[in-house]
Amino acid sequence: MKEDAVAIKDDQREVIIRAATEMFAQYGYKKATLESIGQSIGKVKSYVYYYFKNKEDLFEAVIDREVEQLRSKFQQILTSDMPASKKLEEYTKRRMSLIFQLANYFSLISNGVLINPSLTDKLRRKYDEKEVEHIKEILTQGVEAGEFRIKDVDLASLGFFTVLKGLEIPLFTSNESQTNINHRIDDLLSIIFNGIRSK
Predict the structure, then answer these.
(1) C-alpha–C-alpha distance, residues 145 and 32, integer Å
(2) Structural Rg of the chain based on CA atoms
(3) Hey, CA dihedral for 111, 114, 119, 124, is it positive or negative?
(4) CA 4 from centre of chain
């Protein structure tokens, strides 16, 4: 019975999150309210409050859902039989595609209004640590397979992650296309592979 209750609650949360995703995209973060989100699914505002503390809490759940749906594709890369160099290339491009989609979503819902920086920072920190782990996993595989020559995998993972973070800036601050970003990624990977590949 307890498991059924939890499942029902999770289902109701998902209904609200899906509705909120559409409302944020349609009206923007500022104009979308918990009341309007509740009304869109035939519920009152207090119903939404039962599952989420406030609008920021719901927005965080929306972003979590968007990210996790895309991140599931990362696992396909990490668990594949591809060489580490190919994994790193595919992971990097998939990651930047994710960032590109999130940048567009943030732009759409913000409507020029700055979303609470502490919230966006919280969301960013939430995923940074996991990203470094993914990169480390790929680099470690490359070292063990003799593809890469890296003395300090931890440092290399953090360094590569930092470079990727730098590539995010044009996506959030300009109208640069994903095609242009992909060209930058190809150049970046060429430089990195020339430095870490075993001779």
Answers:
(1) 51
(2) 20
(3) positive
(4) 30
CATH class of the region 1-52: mainly alpha
CA–CA distance, 54 with 183 (Å, rounded to integer): 41
Domain made up of 75-196: CATH architecture: Orthogonal Bundle (1.10)
75-196 has the same fold as 1-52:
no
CA dihedral of residues 145, 146, 148, 153 (deg, nearest 10) = 60
Over the stretch 33-66, which tens digit does the pLDDT of each residue have? 999 999 999 999 999 999 999 998 998 898 888 7
Task: Report pTM.
Answer: 0.68
Q: Residues 141-182: pLDDT tens digits?
A: 999 999 998 999 999 999 999 988 887 766 656 566 667 767
The full set of domain ranges for the chain reads 1-52, 75-196
